[in-house]
Write a structure and sequence with these properties.
Structural class of chain B: alpha/beta
Distance between the termini of chain B: 62 Å
Strand content of chain B: 15-25%
Helix content of chain A: 25-40%
CATH superfamily of one domain in chain A: Glycerol-3-phosphate (1)-acyltransferase
Order of helices and strands of chain B: EHEEHEHEHEEHEEEHEEHEHHHHH
Shape of chain B: globular
Strand order of the largest sheet of chain A: 1-9-6-2-5-3-4
Strand content of chain A: 5-15%
Shape of chain A: globular
Number of strands of chain B: 13
Distance between the termini of chain A: 36 Å
Radius of gyration of chain B: 21 Å
Structural class of chain A: alpha/beta
Largest sheet of chain B: 7 strands, parallel
CATH class of one domain in chain A: Alpha Beta
Order of helices and strands of chain A: HHHHEEHEHHEHEHHEEHEEH
CATH topology of one domain in chain A: Glycerol-3-phosphate (1)-acyltransferase
Helix content of chain B: 25-40%
Number of helices of chain B: 12
Number of helices of chain A: 12
CATH architecture of one domain in chain A: 3-Layer(aba) Sandwich
Oligomer: heterodimer
Chain lengths: 354, 348
């Protein structure tokens, strides 16, 4: 854990941080604006350890896991698809399907929602997934990811990434902010996708059931941060996720998502409107709300999702979950791993859009 | 010497059934049923004593008959029959419980107390954890209605348990009770030809079958079996959950989604028309749903419900007959379409 203290992030005053971070900031800005192929000089000495070992697992278009869209070789493909669709319809309209205690509707998620999100995932954001094998084949795991992009599209894409690429076909159970469960329609979809409220009880319960749980500890601070602070991790809550993982003995898989920051560049935040609407922030982007509904179309950035080496938590004694020092250390370790990987991925990135 | 069991609230179906069941227990000598009005159903060989638990006479009854087990089932959300008002129900729930507990405290023969409560005590809010355990504090305390009564009743019961540590106290928090004979606001709701729902919300519901209710009350009222403990607070619910949309489809009833603000108006309109008791807490339940964890029930109380949530609902649905869109008909229609397709054969 000693090497976890290489760069102190975050809590220092901004002016001081700016001085230290000039090079970094330039990295961000130039890479964000750079035309294809321009590689930064600072980037060169940074050795790249993980990336080459995992040649982009560019998703096979239809992995066939969902079943709904598995292509047929013979000419009867359409008929069979239709018949499959009808049997699906039959189960849906008669209510003969199962949901778990959290309201997770696996059938609906696999066959409808994932199919609906896949074009966005594959064609629009062209998500590249690295290190998906770091998620264990079985048993509980806690995926901790950075959060960005004004709207929580990154959570959905992370879910598609795990669903489509993990060899054991694991399902990611995201933890979502309480606002999600207050909003009509959104809460319904979130529950059916297997999301649940980000609280210790629910996370604990899911981990005890051996699920892969996804959490974005930055919360609204991360997703609603201004564009100028992109790829700078915010505070990781109070480290509750580490405590939960320690209690359950579940490994923590750090996950870095690059590309989500630029989908809605948030150049301003109308606090008055946010307060009026009762939401944590009201984003002003170059297109929203000026272009009306057109402003909600995200920019087609190129995404990379990198899963890091799992950090085991089962080696600690049971009382470790109540040790604040250990909790802070682990939180910092996870946070810094994600931040380092973010920078690494950023310097590798040729451009925001390609 | 056998046991003398006093059961309150026997004029209701559930109370009557429990009285008939508990008499068949070998170690039970005598069963006394108490209610403010005479039951319409028979109580087997049990003695019925017409007494209002809101009055101190109940104390004399306990002492006179040397009662050792009290099963308090007179905690209800709705008035019995058409005449009662919400105010009387509340008074019976709260004042009745206080009076009964006071009487129990004064009666040294009482050794065991079982109270029927409800998972309503957890409330129902979007900021609650998805699954309530017995120790989860509610995020927003129920502000009124039956849920508040239940919270207060449990508060008094806890006070009693502190003052009489020699009495085994068991509080059973039941999920929504469903079954062919059960009569509750929720069964009335599911009896509507079309189910009004809240637009954009699909609550998770949990049910417990009335047969399981009787059985678990019997478990709690008797001596604990080896390796189990039947005092404490327990959530009682069938396994699994049903979404409201799923329940409506299985029942074959169409849903009518309303915006949340209008649901309140529709609710009060229906209530005044006497069609259903659509109380605010009911609306909260049908908006956010409620699921409880039943590990304690299994491991500590040692009770395994015979019906799952889906099973209890199926039994209820069978007793009600099909709705406007019977699932069997819909399934047949889809099958027919599938059969018309060449590749559809053999798939369904």
């Amino acid at each position: 854990m000693a090497d976890a203290k290489v760069i102190p992030f975050g809590e220092e005053p901004r002016a001081k941080r700016k001085g230290k971070r000039v090079a970094r900031a330039r990295t961000d800005r130039t890479s964000a604006l750079a035309p294809v192929g321009r590689v930064l000089t600072q980037a060169a000495p940074e050795p790249d350890t993980e990336a080459p070992t995992v040649p982009a697992q560019a998703g096979p278009a239809e992995s066939g896991r969902g079943g709904a869209g598995s292509p047929e070789r013979d000419g009867g493909g359409w008929d069979r698809k239709l018949a499959h669709g009808l049997s699906f319809l039959r189960r849906r309209i008669t209510g003969e399907y199962e949901v778990d205690d959290f309201g997770y509707d696996q059938e609906l998620t696999d066959q409808v929602v994932m199919s609906a999100l896949r074009p966005l995932y594959e064609k629009y954001f062209r998500v590249e997934v690295k290190g998906v094998e770091n998620i264990p084949e079985k048993g509980a795991a806690l995926i901790v990811a950075n959060h960005s992009g004004t709207l929580p599209v990154d959570g959905l894409m992370l879910q598609v990434a795990v669903h489509d690429h993990h060899p054991a076909g694991r399902h990611l159970r995201m933890l979502a902010a309480d606002l999600v469960f207050v909003l009509p329609v959104v809460n319904e979809i979130a529950r059916k996708l297997g999301h649940t409220l980000a609280c210790a009880e629910d996370a604990q319960e899911l981990l005890e059931r051996g699920e892969v749980v996804g959490v974005m500890p930055e919360g609204f601070k991360g997703i609603g941060k201004p564009f100028s602070e992109r790829y700078k991790l915010q505070r990781f809550g109070r480290g509750g996720f580490v405590q939960t993982a320690l209690r359950a003995g579940a490994p923590i898989v750090p996950c870095s998502i690059v590309g989500a920051e630029e989908i809605y560049p948030m150049v301003g935040n109308s606090r008055t409107l946010a307060r009026l609407l009762g939401i944590p922030y009201f984003p002003l982007t170059p297109t929203f709300p000026w272009l009306g509904p057109m402003g909600v179309v995200p920019l087609p950035t190129k995404w990379t999702i990198q899963f890091g080496e799992p950090i085991p938590t089962d080696g600690y004694p049971p009382e470790a979950a109540d040790d604040p020092m250990l909790m802070f250390n682990l939180t910092d370790q996870v946070r810094e791993t994600i931040q380092h990987t973010l920078y690494k991925l950023l310097v590798q990135r040729r451009s925001v859009f390609f | 010497m056998g046991k003398v069991v006093l059961v309150t609230g026997v004029a209701r179906q559930l109370g009557g059934r429990f009285v008939r069941r508990i008499q068949r227990e070998p170690d039970v000598d005598r069963v006394i049923g108490v209610d403010a009005m005479p039951p319409e159903h028979h109580l087997g060989g049990a003695d019925f004593l017409r007494a209002d638990i809101r009055h101190p006479t109940i104390g004399r009854l306990l002492a006179e008959h040397r009662v050792d087990t009290v099963v308090h089932m007179d905690v209800n959300g709705t008035p019995l029959g058409k005449r009662g008002s919400r105010a009387t129900v509340k008074e019976t729930n709260v004042i009745g419980t206080m009076q009964l507990l006071g009487a129990c405290q004064k009666t040294p023969s009482v050794k065991r107390l079982v109270v029927k409560s409800s998972t309503n005590v957890y409330g129902s809010a979007p900021r609650d954890p998805a699954i309530f355990t017995e120790t989860t504090p509610p995020k927003s305390l129920p502000s009124g209605g039956f849920a508040k009564d239940a919270v207060e009743v449990e508060g008094y019961v806890r006070g009693f348990a502190r003052r009489r540590p020699d009495v085994a106290v068991c509080v059973l928090r039941f999920a929504n009770i469903l079954g062919p004979r059960a009569d509750s606001p929720l069964t009335q709701y599911f009896g509507l030809p079309a189910l009004p729902t809240v637009l954009g919300f699909d609550p998770r519901l949990q049910f417990v079958h009335e047969d399981d209710v009787i059985e678990v009350l019997r478990t709690a009222a008797g001596e604990p079996r080896r390796g189990t403990l039947n005092s404490g607070t327990f959530n009682i619910a069938g396994d699994g959950v049903l979404l409201l949309s799923q329940a409506a489809r299985r029942l074959g009833r169409p849903t009518l989604p309303f915006f949340l603000p209008t649901v309140t108006w529709v609710g009060s309109a229906l209530r005044s028309a006497g069609m259903t008791d659509f109380s605010p807490e009911q609306i909260r339940l049908l908006t956010h749903g409620r699921v409880v964890r039943t590990t304690q029930m299994r491991e500590t109380l040692g009770f395994e419900p015979r019906y799952t949530t889906a099973g209890a609902f199926e039994d209820y649905a069978r007793s009600r007959g099909p709705g406007l869109l019977p699932p069997a008909t819909l399934a047949r229609t889809v099958d027919r379409i599938a059969a018309a397709l060449p590749a559809g054969r053999g798939q369904n």
